[in-house]
């Protein structure tokens, strides 16, 4: 009976340690320090064009080891990941946008701000 309690205590401690060592950390891209989801705001929507703004307040980072190599995994809240075989995992956001009936589509974008983090 004593051995079972000791074994259970060691198992609980090991699971807690593994969970803490793989915890996600929030990295803020702006003034919002609390984790929050990306926001999409429609700026204009007419029969000729659709204009919207995507705000990404931050990202989760998690250190992980795959096949003996250390990586930092980037995780977007409410986002997914693209990971073709042999390539880095890239976090993505996916939204459906209604496109007016037309002959062609021109997509333009501008980066309003950017943040460079070491490592």
Can I get a quick summary?
With 119 residues, this protein is α+β, with helices and mostly antiparallel strands. The chain has one helix at 2-21; strands spanning 25-28, 39-45, 50-55, 58-66, 69-75, 80-82, 90-92.
Write down the secondary-structure element order. HEEEEEEE
Helix content: 10-25%
Report the average pLDDT across residues.
78
How much of the sequence lies in strands comes to 25-35%
Structure commentary:
There is one protein chain. The chain has 119 residues and is of the alpha+beta class. It has a domain at 25-101. Helices cover 17% and strands 33% of the residues. It has one helix and seven strands; from the N terminus they run H-E-E-E-E-E-E-E. Strand 2 (39-45) and strand 3 form a beta hairpin.
How is the topology of this model organized?
Layout: H1 2-21, E1 25-28, E2 39-45, E3 50-55, E4 58-66, E5 69-75, E6 80-82, E7 90-92
Antiparallel strand pairs: 1-4, 2-3, 4-5, 6-7
